[in-house]
Design a protein that fits this description.
The chain has seven helices and five strands, in the order ααβββαβααβαα. By secondary structure, it is α/β, with parallel strands linked by helices. The protein has one domain: Purple Acid Phosphatase, chain A, domain 2 (4-Layer Sandwich). The two termini are 47 Å apart.
Length: 199
Amino acid sequence: MNLPISNRTSVTSRFPRQLLSAVTLTASALSLVACGGGADSSVYKPIELNIAHINDHHSQLDAVPVSATSATNVYTLDGVATQVELGGFARQTAMFKSIASTPNLLKLHAGDALTGSLYYTFFKGAADAQMMNSICFDAFIPGNHEFDDGDSTLKGFLDELGKGSCHPDPVGQHRSASGHRAGPHRQQLLLQALRHQNH
């Protein structure tokens, strides 16, 4: 039997919205209290986490040189127009090496390493991977440009990252206090997901 809508009883009419909201808020607060606090809360000491991060280097591995015939890379420093050489992955590597002794240093690359120069056109990420391995990023997450030439190119790039003396984690896998990777190797999981998506 179909009753008119006005005769139907709903959960919200039996329990006013304010009461439902109050119950939900109380349950959420109680669950948060259970996560922290307690007599042994002093066991967990805060740590200082230092993050060194780059992204969007787009295969720009060489420095942009000073040009005698162009006004590129001109900046005003103390009122003086100054032309400087910019960028280059060698500078990135030197910067990361200069801070290597920083405690609890997390080195991150947030993607878009690929496309943008002839290094990518000719080497499809192999040159970028070699340069990235000179820094040994703790984590790397693919950006949209890592997918520009399809899954096989991305797989080749990730394989090249894995060939270096360090193995950046493409999806942000955590390390234990001893520095060992925790859990299964996420690069394999990402590649399996890409293969599964294509079938």
